[in-house]
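Per-record layout

source: Roseicella aquatilis
name: mannose-1-phosphate guanylyltransferase
length: 482
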Amino acid sequence: MVAGAKGKGPYSVIVPVILSGGTGTRLWPLSREGYPKQFWPLVSARTMLQETASRAAGTDFAPPLVVCNEAHRFLVAEQLRAAHIEGARILLEPVGRNSAPAIAAAALLLEAENPEAVLWLMAADAAIQDVPALHVALEHAVTGARAGRIVTFGMKPTAPETGYGYIEAGAPLPGAPGVSAIARFVEKPDAAKAADFVAGGRHLWNSGMFVATAATLVAELERHAPEVLRTVRLALAEAQRDLDFVRLGAEAFKAAPAISIDYAVMEKTACAAVVPADIGWSDLGSWAAMWEASAKDTAGNVAQGPVELVDSSGCYVRSEGILTGVVGLKDTVVVTTEDAVLVMPRSRAQDVKLLVEQLRRAGRKEATEHRRIYRPWGHYEGLIQGDRFQVKKIQVRPGQKLSLQKHFHRAEHWVVVNGTAIVQRDAETHLLRENESIYLPLGCVHRLENPGMIPLTLIEVQSGAYLGEDDIVRIEDTYGRA
């Protein structure tokens, strides 16, 4: 339980700021740009975004502010709603510009409301096993933040990890129990140096979590990264507000330097401090980290999904649906999704990004997209594709509807599998139930809506000379898409 009386005390003005802009490519093929790792359930039945938001839920905290890619706005909103996180605001980045511009936008927005508000900045995709210990560390960090510090959380290393940056802790700060000065930041070390850091006991993993007041963050950005602050301030001035979304001005935000908060501020500021913490933290930044963070059988294997292992040890095997069998492997990662399979030694986990880069160069859509594509109204997934035709399964959430649209190059045939559909076709309106269908000729203006209380599922058969998703002319859209 976090300290602080209900509605009173220091925690009543803590604002959780969740940074959800990462793409998590080192967890490919599960995590991809279109649906990155923060939206997947990796360590529990809840997604990583839901896990993160739930750590700061309750009367001791303000509703969260989530900073995310504009393309993910409805995913974020839906997952927070499903986790019963109420009152959240979602700040939309038109493009990814690393953590400093994202944090600057949050700090400026919240400073305008309360300069002394304490911001708890955290990534949406980290795992933490000991939440009570996290709250104790947070209490120390808040004390430091109120004294004008930008406090980061330094994680006690459990292994000589070369994929993390390190912090060398300095002397304890007077008047701030549990908080120390930072002697220096250290880039990701080689294996020998990482082993020395762990043995020495003075170095901590850089977790990327920070606590500071809005006023301190803005002042230090102004001092050390004025161009970041200038461009983001302009983007916020040009922002458009739509329900719980704040959409930053695109042109101004694109001009912001792409730089992390570590390089922009933390390695330069005299205000930096650290709270050493042992909370079972992992950034789940690779399949090796997933293996470390997961429960293992007596042979050291992690098996998730429909998986069978024979005479194997130290393996991480995950399947998202297809039966995956492994025989005689050791210290190996095998990940199976509907459209891709990854196999590699666990020791090469950091090199998945090299594979993703190669797929991008080859123009493979699997580098960035899953077969299932999420939209504000639900999702669709490709089933079959051939010469001049393709078949998709479409699911529309209750009460939602697609845009009013037309196509220049394809006709469509819809067959309702489950639920009820209202279909607008030119001047006609049709009510379709299970096993009923409708034909939409090329060029007709049409719209699909789910008026029911259960999801609407239908099969769509497209035929025509061109079947790309960009052959959509939207005439009207509930979700503000062009």
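summary: The radius of gyration is 24 Å. The domain at 10-282 is CATH 3.90.550.10 (Spore Coat Polysaccharide Biosynthesis Protein SpsA; Chain A).
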